[in-house]
Amino acid sequence: MDLAEARQRVEELRRLIEEHNYRYYVLDQPVISDREYDTLMQELIALEETYPELLTPDSPSQRVGGAPREEFNPVRHPEVLLSLNDAFNEGDLLDFDRRVREITGGEVSYLIEPKIDGLTVALTYIDGVFSLGATRGDGQVGEEVTANLRTIPLLPLRLRRPLPYLVVRGEVYMPKAAFARLNAEREEAGEPLFANPRNAAAGSLRQLDPKVTASRNLSLFVYQVISVTGAQVATQAAALDFLAELGLPVNPYRFLARDIQAVLAEIKAWTPERRAALPYEIDGLVIKVNDLALHPVLGATAKAPRWAVAYKFPAEQATTRVEEIILRV
Ligand SMILES: NC(=O)c1cc2c(=O)c3cc(F)ccc3oc2nc1N
């Protein structure tokens, strides 16, 4: 096989492997066996070793790569990554809705999303290739964790449709089962346990060695377009569909509520049993004004947008409430 034939085969193998990655991790509908997948990957690795000039950083063979770092590089986000105001009860939600309608001067529909209990990341794709990943940090400057994010199988190294430029916001989380396994291993090894999946995810993503991150079974849901050229969407619901079409992992649950009363009704459906049945932790629901044209009209305070609010589920066990009281004291 000469270089030209090798190049062609490498391109074909990369496309095949990314397609199977997408089917396996995002659609959860693999069409080949693990063994067949491994055979494709082995062939790609062998060709890249034989022809090093064909090796590129976005190759699927490079997910778990990169030497350990000394420390993290700072990354300034293209826009401030704000946090959400909390709503704890119906009254808070009615207040939120009243302020929204005062400013927009009309009826507003809301999109409800689960509030994944993980840590925020910003992902940058240039010409469809995953180029930069960073933690939220203080909202303006985060830590560059690209190599660690690449180890998350759900994170596509290349979008299914190339775009000149896309920055998205998502939540890296550790599924409940992975959290339980990790703490069992740490108990076995006499190491300190992580308090909850959110801390475990943060500790796993902010590792200096990508190989450690790769061993932690992190996952990801993407939920917001921060910046994009070459496309536009009119509503948050359309934004989630747009992100999913690009091959980014998007949470399957979303509820379009025509007004705040419909939000209050839907919230009641999120019983502790329904949350316990999820394979990941959520600490609430995010209520967003669905019409994106209203977001700049509503704007933001220094801390949080006026067009979204986080409804927090009431603490479940009495012990949690006692802990909260102690912490408050
Ligand atoms: N954890 C989450 O699953 C989640 C978090 C946020 C945010 O933190 C968030 C923060 C903003 F300033 C604006 C929108 C947001 O939307 C969000 N949507 C979500 N689904």
Give the quaternary arrangement of the chains: single chain
User: What percent of the residues sit in helical stretches (DSSP H or I)?
Assistant: 25-40%
Q: How would you sum up the major sheet?
A: 5 strands, mixed
Number of helices: 12
| Structural class by secondary-structure content | alpha+beta
Span of the ends, CA to CA? 72 Å
Average of per-residue pLDDT values? 92
Beta-strand content estimate:
15-25%
The arrangement of helices and strands along the chain is: HHEEHEEEEHEHHHEHEHHEHEH
Brief summary:
The protein has 329 residues and is α+β, with helices and mostly antiparallel strands.
Task: Outline the secondary-structure elements.
Layout: H1 3-26, H2 34-50, E1 74-76, E2 86-87, H3 90-104, E3 110-116, E4 119-126, E5 129-135, E6 141-143, H4 146-150, E7 165-173, H5 176-188, H6 197-205, H7 210-214, E8 219-229, H8 236-245, E9 255-257, H9 260-268, H10 272-276, E10 282-289, H11 294-298, E11 308-312, H12 318-328
Parallel strand pairs: 2-11
Antiparallel strand pairs: 1-6, 3-9, 3-10, 4-5, 4-7, 7-8, 10-11
Helix pairs in contact: 1-2
The protein binds the ligand NC(=O)c1cc2c(=O)c3cc(F)ccc3oc2nc1N.
